[in-house]
User: Which sequence fits this backbone?
């Protein structure tokens, strides 16, 4: 064995001893990729952009991986310590589960923040991710500095009481709608009918209104108005409380991270940098 071979072998041993093989630090090119083991033995993947400012965990919406937030992330303040977690059956979080719920997904996400030793952090997400963010405030109110729910339904009836399903994406451009459909089709190809149908029922079995009525956690609700008259809080099941802010994005659809990333990021930046008691 020559000197070069010995040096390579020693380096490999040192690298292996330095940390878990599931983690990859490629911060020079992008995020640090890592994963934790789920309760069912599967893996939950997350992506970390370390920084010295407030810690923010974001959860993508249905059928999306961490790249859903690429455009939003480009407008976030550079000091935000950002992590994006992919839900089971999405991106590198595999395999899918047939027993998923908003509550169980929140518990899985907490495995990530525990692995990172986060003590105080902001939880945010889009659509089902926003629902999970609210659920996280119910499960760990002492840790959550604030919740950012982007088009996260408080209850499934909000879709009919406050909006019309036909207006979900009517303000998207043709290019944006094509992109949305591409992401959806990519996810559909990976899942069986049983897995797909199991996931799309999850959000209908959850009610976040009791949490919003009692939580001491600051909450930012971000919604697009579909270029139509804006529904009131009662129809949206968002309690009118001092710690809950309702932020409207004009002309926005349900696909806000795709359609209005700069406006979404601006709302996040203001919220996480203005921490105060409600």
Assistant:
């Amino acid at each position: 064995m020559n000197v070069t071979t010995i040096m390579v072998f020693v380096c490999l041993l040192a690298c292996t001893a330095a940390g878990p093989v599931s983690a990859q630090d490629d911060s020079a090119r992008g995020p640090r990729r890592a994963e934790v083991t789920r309760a069912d033995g599967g893996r939950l993947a997350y992506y970390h952009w370390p920084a010295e400012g407030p810690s923010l965990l974001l959860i993508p919406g249905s059928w999306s991986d961490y790249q859903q937030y690429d455009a939003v992330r480009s407008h976030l303040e550079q000091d935000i310590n950002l992590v994006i977690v992919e839900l089971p059956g999405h991106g590198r979080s595999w395999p899918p589960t047939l027993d998923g719920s908003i509550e169980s997904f929140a518990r899985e996400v907490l495995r990530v923040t525990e692995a990172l030793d986060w003590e105080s952090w902001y939880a945010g997400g889009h659509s089902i991710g926003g629902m999970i963010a609210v659920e996280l405030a119910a499960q760990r109110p002492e840790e959550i500095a604030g919740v950012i729910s982007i088009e996260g339904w408080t209850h499934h009836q909000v879709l009919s009481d406050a909006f019309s399903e036909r207006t979900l994406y009517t303000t998207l451009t043709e290019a944006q709608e094509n992109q949305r459909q591409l992401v959806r089709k990519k996810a559909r190809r990976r899942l069986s009918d049983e897995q797909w149908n199991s996931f799309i029922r999850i959000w209908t079995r959850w009610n976040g209104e009791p949490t919003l009525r009692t939580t001491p956690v600051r909450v930012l609700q971000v919604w697009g108005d579909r270029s139509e008259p804006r529904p009131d809080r009662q129809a949206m099941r968002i309690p009118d409380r001092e710690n809950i802010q309702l932020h409207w994005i004009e002309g926005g659809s349900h696909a806000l991270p795709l359609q209005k990333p700069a406006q979404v990021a601006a709302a996040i930046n203001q919220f996480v940098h203005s921490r105060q008691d409600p």
Notes: The CA atoms of residues 98 and 194 lie 8 Å apart. The chain has eleven helices and nine strands. The radius of gyration is 20 Å.
